[in-house]
Amino acid sequence: MDGTLVNRDGVIPPATIAAIKLAMSQGVQVTLATGRMFRSAARCARQLGVTIPIISYQGSLVADPVSGKILQHTPMCIAVVKEAIEIARQASVHLNVYIDDELYVDEVTDGLKRYAERNGVEPHLVPDLVACLMQDPTKLMVWGEPTELDKVYPLLTERLSSQCLITRSYPTLCEVGHMATGKGSALKFLTGLLGIEQRETVAVGDGFNDIDMIEWAGLGVVIDTAPEEVKAIADWVVKISPEDGLAELVT
What we know:
Blueprint: H1 14-25, H2 38-48, E1 54-56, E2 61-63, E3 70-73, H3 78-88, E4 94-99, E5 102-105, H4 110-119, E6 124-125, E7 139-143, H5 146-160, E8 164-170, E9 173-178, H6 183-194, E10 202-205, H7 211-216, E11 219-223, H8 228-231, E12 236-238, H9 247-250
Helix pairs in contact: 3-5
């Protein structure tokens, strides 16, 4: 969504909305695949008129944006999240913990306020994130300055890569989820549910967290502002504008 569907101002260009609605009226099945919380993604889905299940939390949750019915949920175990929090606290970073589609934090910063506003969520402030882990979290997000993330990311991958999917979605963000998740595996699950062949799918992305989805899809499309490593695996690299967004690609 962010960087592809949603522009830098946090909105979906009207031209993109019109193009997607036209495509759906002609029988194209459209879904969203994002690292965002389900409630945030569902809000965008409603804006587009998307009614088939959407993929959120980097593939950890597939749910119906209309009814909220969960079709697949793969959370992390509490013990692993505790270890990840312990590792992350070795650097000057911030932590978001997502449980039951709610956001938990242990500090409120200007950055968090902007994040909450952009995603349309209200964070729960708790004195200790570890103490609030009463059920298995869907995702842990570590965010901060790129130099700090450069320290944390190798530590997380060294200690937890055999148990977690660890993605660097942006230079300022590192997301940790269950190892069996990912946008690609979630898309495979969803297309199987809908009876859609792999060769009939098109996936669009711009980040490292999109690679497995782009590789799996019948046609993998990457935005030209993506890192070179991501563009290298694309079947098609496209340029989008802030005004029209994905309109030209969709039409």
